[in-house]
Design a protein that fits this description.
single chain, alpha/beta, Rossmann fold, 2 domains, seven-stranded mixed beta sheet, five-stranded parallel beta sheet, 12 strands
């Protein structure tokens, strides 16, 4: 074919597929769909990213083994963000600009994920956020951004404030929170709802640094505030240390912990000091449960990862596993001519989807992209997390923002 004929052929193609449509085909080949995934597999939040990576990879493998997405196999490219906003942006740029992925999936914490939001919006690429609760993911609304298993920070604030006031009957609430995105947001949201719904302020708000080992100054300050309950927002290792040190210091107030701490690994690290701690779980059944469905799922997971360290699988394996299925289900419903627009439309049509009984249902709409507003209250009893018989009676304000 001569140059003139080639040019005519290109013009004909462009007439049918505008440049914007052609650009949307990145990552979609005749036999594969490439998904870019990032999260921390090094640094202080590696317990999140390693689990997110492995949980998603297991789900994608199962989908591929079952025939893939309308004849295409999922190809996952993973980048480490080290829980750093700068590293996360670099990871996203590499996946988008070098690997030419169809979409992004974040399995990292809020600190890093929040750093990618402006870049992802600029590129107009779909990003499905599995674990981060950073408010900027879903508010203000952006058509390309979705939040999966981990609910929005504002929802934490609603449930935490109501539980602290109505379940504990607490008047004097002390909040201990870390000085980074996720725990600070949890603390801020709880304080806001205590004021809005109950016209109350915490007896004290005390902060600590990521990776702190000695919580004596913070716990002593908390004790001086004469708390009815101490709400601790950080990571599981920090919470375990704080609870053990609190018992050594003679702190009698019960502890309420953030959702990412409601995990069997926290109990293993805190040992007996974890007893009576309460919090909200993002999954209805925790790893380690003897429920047959969990036993079967863990056996499957361990066959795939036989050399995994103690404490795995954890909640984040479950969350990312379920979210990977949400993503692939939407891709299937988008049809063989997969585009980013058809994928977004399919996600927005998702109603009460869950891959199994170990996941909360995910739902989206054209007005909001918050997939999960459900959390399960739990308490450590006899060395295990057990459900607490309590239900919220306050109607959530979250979705009113999108009306």
């Amino acid at each position: 074919m001569n140059t003139f004929s080639s040019a005519l052929r290109l013009v004909a193609v462009l007439a049918v597929f505008p440049l914007s449509a052609l650009a949307q085909q990145n990552g979609v080949g005749p036999d594969s769909v490439t998904i870019g995934v990032f999260g921390p597999i090094s640094g202080p939040a590696s317990y999140i990213g390693l689990a997110g990576r492995d949980g998603a990879a297991l789900a994608f493998k199962e989908v591929n083994d079952a025939g893939g997405i309308n004849g295409r196999k999922i190809r996952m490219v993973f980048e480490d963000d080290a829980h750093s906003p700068a590293r996360a942006v670099a990871a996203a740029k590499k996946l988008v600009e070098q690997d030419k992925v169809f979409m992004l999936m974040s399995v990292g914490g809020s600190n890093a994920t929040a750093g990618t939001i402006d870049y992802v919006k600029e590129k107009g690429l779909p990003m499905y956020v599995s674990i981060s609760s950073a408010p900027a993911v879903t508010f203000p609304f952006a058509r390309t951004l979705f939040r999966g298993g981990t609910t929005e920070t504002a929802r934490y604030g609603e449930l935490y404030a109501e539980f602290l006031r109505e379940h504990y009957k607490a008047k004097r609430i002390v909040i201990l929170s870390g000085r980074e995105e996720y725990p600070r947001n949890e603390g801020d949201a709880t304080v806001a709802k205590l004021k809005e719904w109950f016209n109350e302020a915490p007896a004290a708000r005390i902060e600590f640094n990521v990776g702190d080992k000695d919580f004596t100054p913070q716990l002593s300050a908390a004790q001086r505030a004469n708390p009815d309950v101490i709400a601790f927002f950080g990571n599981p290792a920090e919470a375990a240390l704080a609870l053990r040190q609190a018992r050594d210091l003679g702190v009698k107030a019960p502890f309420f912990v953030g959702a990412n701490i409601v995990d069997p690994a926290f109990i293993a690290a805190a040992r007996g000091s974890a007893e009576t701690a309460k919090g909200f779980s993002l999954v209805p059944v925790l790893p380690g449960s003897r429920l047959p469905e969990m036993v079967q799922w863990e056996a499957k997971w361990k066959r795939e990862y036989p050399n995994a360290p103690a404490g795995r699988p954890n909640n984040f394996d479950l969350i990312a596993y379920a979210d990977a299925y949400v993503v692939t289900d939407a891709m299937k419903r988008a049809g063989p001519a997969l585009t980013q627009d058809s994928f977004i439309a399919a996600l927005e049509a998702t109603r009460n989807y869950k891959v199994n009984g170990l996941a909360t249902a995910r739902s989206f709409s054209t007005k909001h992209h918050i997939g999960n507003l459900q959390l399960v209250p739990m308490e450590v009893r006899g060395g295990a997390w057990e459900p607490v018989q309590w239900s919220s009676t306050h109607q959530s304000d979250i979705l009113k923002r999108y009306e």
